[in-house]
Amino acid sequence: MENKRNNPYRKDFPLLDCDPVIYLDNAATAQRPGCVIEAEKTFYEQHNANPMRGFYRLSVSATEKYESARKTVQELIHAESPEEIIFTRNTTESLNLTAYSYGLQYLKAGDEILVSVMEHHSNLLPWQMVARQTNARLKFLECLPDGRITEEQLQEGFSDRTRLVAIAHISNVFGRVNPIKRIVSMARERGAAVVLDAAQSVPHIPVDVKELGVDFLAFSGHKLLGPMGIGVLYGRRELLEKMPPFLTGGEMIQSVTRTGAVFAELPYKFEAGTVNAAGAAGLEAAIHYMKKVGYEEIHRRETELTSQALSGLKKIPHVHVIGSDLPEEHAGILTFTIDGVHPHDISAILDGDGIAVRAGHHCAQPLMQHLGISSSARASFSFYNTENEVSAFLKSVEGIRRKMGYGDEPIL
Ligand code: PMP
């Protein structure tokens, strides 16, 4: 059985190496390998100056680090050019940028915005705002209780008025990959734009924006082993070029007069103010590290751990796992409920055993309502977790109802 010692990646993660925590909240944020922490430190120790501002050596070096990170992101998601990569703070900011700069500009009364019922609030509230301000109609794409979106549901969701689809590549509750290619093809038939929330996919599966055919794609560095405070928006050049800036101020202009301004070229038009260059350097290190591990290895390890956890949870009475029966359809995410136990109690009891899992609505309240629950617990695994950790998790879950005072009899 694999333990801390013989997982080859464990030693790369300083926190995991010195803290006994069994960290199973990787879908919320990943742990950072030492090379990412070092890359941020190196930026401040060796390259620190305000990028894009100075003509002196240090500022040029800071700019080069920042632009090198942009190129690395471009290659990771197979974008056509680095100008299509905008650095933001996180997925939430990337989606808001799209909603404010594209949504408000190009949607109008009577148009339909299609969002799925499983969206994270980050990919719902910006579209609620756009619908309110433009009088476009916000429509929901439904899903089955196990997270599948059927062809019928797609046919019901789309109409001749669909002008924008905003959908998660992988939901942070189900962990299942959504049928994006089919959605893109239905959107194309209607001339609708597709905004993909890739916060939970880029850390787990190879993503190719050209192959998927999406118009916008958003993800966060911190779920991808990278630093907090750095995120990415990919946008198709043709669309980005015609969109107005989201934020205005320094760094995003060519020239300014008392009454107006000429905006900078892509991608700078969308990067107002001093950028997070150290974060970008950290993200670049994270991507290099992830590529060295490889998506195949990540998928293999995560599926093995998920398989062990899923079959273990299924054997525990009163535990209900949300989503697919197949471990490979979970992207390392297992969301579950226990009869008669509030998810906050699940998390608190697991924490008592040194295990960190998430509890709550996972920023997906409409989905919780759709599933007829108010909240749930979520364990999410990464390639640096071990079989021993999953066994400890299962043992702890097994004891939860007893600790809550339930006997062995089924509750009504
Ligand atoms: N979308 C999904 C699917 C997510 O899982 C998350 C993070 N929980 C977000 C968006 C928001 O990411 P961030 O908080 O980094 O902006």
TrEMBL record:
GO terms, biological process: cysteine metabolic process
Sorted UniProt keywords: Lyase, Pyridoxal phosphate, Transferase
Swiss-Prot/TrEMBL cofactor(s): pyridoxal 5'-phosphate
Domain Aminotransferase class V: 22-393
GO terms, molecular function: cysteine desulfurase activity; lyase activity; pyridoxal phosphate binding
Top EC group: transferase
EC number annotated for this UniProt entry: 2.8.1.7
Record's function text: Catalyzes the removal of elemental sulfur and selenium atoms from L-cysteine, L-cystine, L-selenocysteine, and L-selenocystine to produce L-alanine.
Name used for this protein in its record: Cysteine desulfurase
